[in-house]
Each structure stands twice: as structure tokens, then as C-alpha cells.
Sequence to fold (593 residues):
Amino acid sequence: MTDLSHAAPRRSAEGLLGNGAVMVLFCWALAAAMRFGSVDHVGIRFNDTDDASRLSQVRDLLNGQGWFDLVQHRLDPAFPVPMHWSRLVDAPIAILILFCERFTDVAAAERLAMTVWPLIVLLAAMAAVWSVAVRIGGVLAGAPAVLLLAFGLSVLWQFDPGRIDHHNVQVVLSLLMFAAVFGQSRRAGALAGLICALMLAIGLETILLLASASLAAVYRCLMEPQSRTWARAFGTSLAAGGIGLMLTTVPPALWQVGVCDSLSANYAALAVLGGGGLALVASADLRHRRMWMGGVAAVSVVVFGWIEPACLRGPFGQVDPRLWPIWLDHVEEMKSVWKALGPDLTSITAMLSGPVLALGASLFLLRLPEMRRSPAYWAYVASFSASFAIGCFQIRTLFYANMLAIPLIAAAIALVCRMAADTGRSAILVLVAAVLATNNSSVVLAAVSLLPQAPAKAVATQSDERSRACMDLREYAGLAREPAALVLSTLDMGPFILAASPHAVMSAPYHRQATGILDGHRILAAAPDEAFALLKARGISLVALCSRSPHNALYASMAPNGLQSRLTRGEAVDGLQPLETRGVVRVFRVAAP
Fold:
């Protein structure tokens, strides 16, 4: 009788909160309503350079640029290079724009699509965190997972209206991949392999997560005979998806070329050899499976390195080393948490509290024997831990760590609720209290109330707001009125000039575009006489600078007497005719020699 009475509160809680569709839709609507406060700036004021560049890439596709033509032809036209981004993200945004054009003009259609797309991805994210949490912690873990996401200040900004970069898509695919890795069926294995291939085709930010899932598949093949059907489906799907997506998204002229930063011949070979080899080892009746699997791994890595040896150093293996001191070393998302956020303890708490809680949750969940025995669980925890560790030194990875943290925290909450129910306490009350205590919004409010606020925080916030003016397309109206020409600007302005005007730009913050970046930096850092000669040699007609760009301070330090610094100080420079100097964006025409 006692056991039944203890189980009743648990069943009641699971019945109330276990309806996945209802909870997902409710929390999505709640989060979406909270994000709609920023709708008015969509398509006008951007979140960062990548959103503006994605819009330009989608516009080019809609204006007739070929599916396989990934070159941004207005980015340093003298030295065109294909972007490392995928059409797989461009396509749904373009389809949304075309659909919205049936009801309104092009500009409004773009803004509608840029508003709707992140909300669609957010809905998928809600479903994904629910799915992973339920697989780790049971039905009761789903509700806290979507509630934690709905109040997750440290992650929801990636789903703001106007956010059309690919990181939100990648994290959703990562979660869906792990949900399938926890599965046992052939269908789950095939789905996991296909999602791995999709993630590889969209970008390499998640390469460690792919490796972790693949290692889980290898373990299941070698150590769990009952899972070999799953492993065979995973390997087959990964191999087919890898080669299929390369053939359908990579320009045919580049099918035999290996690059380090996107899907290409070397990564396709890794997927085909590794995935196909895993499928064969899982299928065949072999006595020495470990030896055969080791051979597959060795051959895969050797072929990968043979196609492009530089890629053995990682996705940045082909980056020109000269870009680091003048640009990459100063990129905010490449800095550590401590350098990027400085003395702002509230922001540091917001970014780190979720992963820290998840570390504790992952250990707490080891109380469950099924978790200790699950290769999928260990792969998930390894992926989360790697994202967290890397994120402490490169802050951009903390978004992935915070998203992967949510199902772990939710599963731990569910376990606590079951333990409470077994002792006669209300599982629902425990769940509500736990969500209130662990959600990111509560943690941030507590940090604001309890932690000392550094005086520099207000200055940093004001500086951030000032620099955001450089991301406002309205500030480029004067430049846009000039006849189309090649424009020299700082790196951070390039994507916004492309989005706001018909002009071409010398450089933008994309590592493949080394020639334009190096030449642009050389001109901006040079003395006026030398700079003028270089401007003419490169065919540059206009110079545009943003008075609030963080690059101004960088050039003031590196080249205080260079062209950039002199113009920023308002000094007259021979050979440059001021066209627009009163606004945030200042424009100069290069005079005829």
C-alpha cells in the first residue's frame, strides 16, 4: 500500500506535465512573446556581422546567383573566394521571403522572414531539449527542460528576431542528434547519422560533438551486440549523407579539393570511410571487431590528412597566420570569458551558471545504473564538458554548453522529483521550486542583487550600445546614395555596407578573405601618402569609417599616425574628399591622381 501511495504523486505529476506537445508549444509561445520586444529593429539594426552577411547571401540567391556559387561577388571582387557557409541555411530563409512576398513588398517580406525564421528554430529547439531530457531523465524531465529554455537569458538571444546566423540551427541539430543516439532502433541510428552529416554540411563548429556521437556508435558496435543494427544504420546514413550533401551543396569544381573549414572532399572521405567502415564492421561476422574498427579509423584519418594535411591542425588549419595579430586575436567571440566580459560578474554568472549546474547534475545522474552503463549518456556529457571547457577560453562555444546543459539539469530535477514523490512529498511543488531556483533568469536576478557591480560595467555597456550604431543600416544611407564603387572600411563595417548599399567592399570578417583583409589593413595603417597610392592601386573609390567602431581604438594603438587614426581624429588628408562627416558613418571620396 505504501509503494502505491508514493507512486501516485509521481504519476500525477507525469500526467500533468508529461504532455510534450502542450508543454513545448506553451513554453515556445512564452519565450516568443518575450522576444518580440526587439521586432522593430529587424532588417534595420543587426545583432552582428554574420546576420547581415547571411541576408546578403540569401538576397544573391533570390536574385539569380547559382546554388553552387557561394562567392560573395561584391567582397573584394579582384580576389573572389567562396564563403564557407552552406546553402542549407540560406534555402529556408529564401523560401520564407518568397512566401511573404505574396502578401507584401520585398523589404517587408525580408523583415517578416527574418522575424519568423528564428522563432521556427526556437520551436525546434524546444522540441529538441524536451526530447533529450526525456531520454535521460524520463517523462518528468521534459517540462523543466522547456521551462529552463524559456527563461534562459544566456541562450535565447540566439533566437531573437533577426537572428539568421547558423549557430541556432546547429545547436538544434546537435540536440536532435543526441536524442537519436539515445535510441535503439534502426530508424534512430539512421536519423543520428543523417543529422551528423547535416551538421557537417552546415558548419564545423560542432565537430567535437560529431566525434563524440561517432565514438558512442563505435562503442555500441563493439561492446553491445544488441546495438549493432543501430550502429550499422548510423554508419550507413553518415556515409550516404556525407557524400550526398557534398555533391548537392559543394560546387562541382571543388569536389576534389580539401578545405578545413567546411564540408569538402576530405570531410566527405572521413564520413564515407568512417561511416561505411562502421557499417561493415557492425554487419559482418568478425572475430576481431576491435582490430577491424581500429583499421577503419586509421585509414579514415590517413586519407583525411592526405587530401589536405593542414586540416589535421583543425578547422583553422588553412588560415593565414598574418590574420591573427591584426584581427582574430581581437575578435570578442574568440576571447576567454574573463577577457570578453572583464569585471562584469553578472554576465559571467549568466554565462557560467548553467554549465556549472549541469556539471553537478551529470554527476548526480550517475546514481542511476542505466546512466552509468549508457554510451549515449557518456557521449552527451563528454560533448557538454568539451563545449564548456573550450567556451571558457573561446566564449562563442558557451552557447552550445548552455544549451547542452539544459537537459542535464532537467533530468536531475526529474530525479529529485521522483525521490521526493517516493517519500510522500509533492513532485509538482518540488519541480516548480527547482525550476525557479535553477533557471537562468533567476540566477541573473540573484547575481544583480548580491554581486558587486564593477564601475566599468556601465562604461562597457555604454560602449557596446555606441558600437551597435555601426550595425544600423540607416547610418549607411549617405554612403548608399553614392554611385556603386569599391569601398574601403574597417572589417566590421563590410557586411553592413553590402546589406545597405550596392557597393563592393574591400574586406569583411571572414578568414578565407585573407588578401582583402591584409590589403585593407595595410592601407588603413599606412601614412596618408602611402595609403593614397595603395588606394589608387587597388581601385578603391570610397573610404567609409564608423565613428563608434571598436576598431578605432585598435588602430589608434597599432598605427596612431596611419590613415584610419588620422581620419578618426578628424584630420584632413590630402587626396580624400569628405562627402559625409556629420553622421556616425563618415564617407570620403578618393580624389583622382
